[in-house]
Amino acid sequence: MSTWVIILIFYNIFVLFYFLGINGFYLFLVLLSYRDLRFLRGAERAADRFRAFRSEFYKPLSIIIPAYNEESTIAETVYSALSLRYPEFEVIIVNDGSSDKTLPVLQERFNLEVSARDYRQEIPCRHIRGTYSSTDYPNLVVVDKVNGGKSDALNAGINVSQFPLFCNIDSDSLVDADSLLKVVDLFARDWRIVAAGGTIRAANDCRIEDGKVTEIRLSPKFWVRFQIVEYLRAFLFGRAGWSSLGGLMILSGAFSIFRRRAVVEAGGYRIDTVGEDMELVLRIQRIMKKINREYRVVFLPDPVCWTQVPESYRGLQTQRRRWQRGLAESLTGNFEMFLNPQYGSTGMISYPFFLFYELLGPVIEITGYLVFIFSVLAGILNPPFVLLFLTTAILLGILLSTSALLMEEIYYRRYPRLRDVLTLLGFAVLENFFYRQLHAWWRFRGLLDVMFKKRTWGTLERKSFSEAPQSSGKRQP
Amino acid sequence: MDPYLYNLLIIILILAGVILIMAGAIVLIRLLSARNQRVYRQKALEWEEIFLDYLHSGLGLEEACRRMAGEKRYYWLWRFFAPYLEVLKGTDFEKTKTLCRELGLIDHYRGKLRRGRPASRALAARVLGSLQCRDSVPEMLNQLRNKNPVIVQAAAQGLARSGETETFLPAARALLSHTFFTYEGVTEILSGYGKEACPLLQEGIETEEEKLPDPDHLPGGRVPKRKPRRGETDPSVLVSIMTDLLGYFRCPGSLPLLGRLLERADDEITVHVLKALLRFGEVPPDFDLKPYLQHRYWVVRNFSAKTWKLTGDQQALPLLEDLLSDRNWWVRFQAAEALRSAGRPGLAILEKQAAGTDQAASAISTYALSRSEVKEPS
Question: Which of B18, B184, B188 minimises the CB distance to A399?
Answer without folding.
Answer: B18
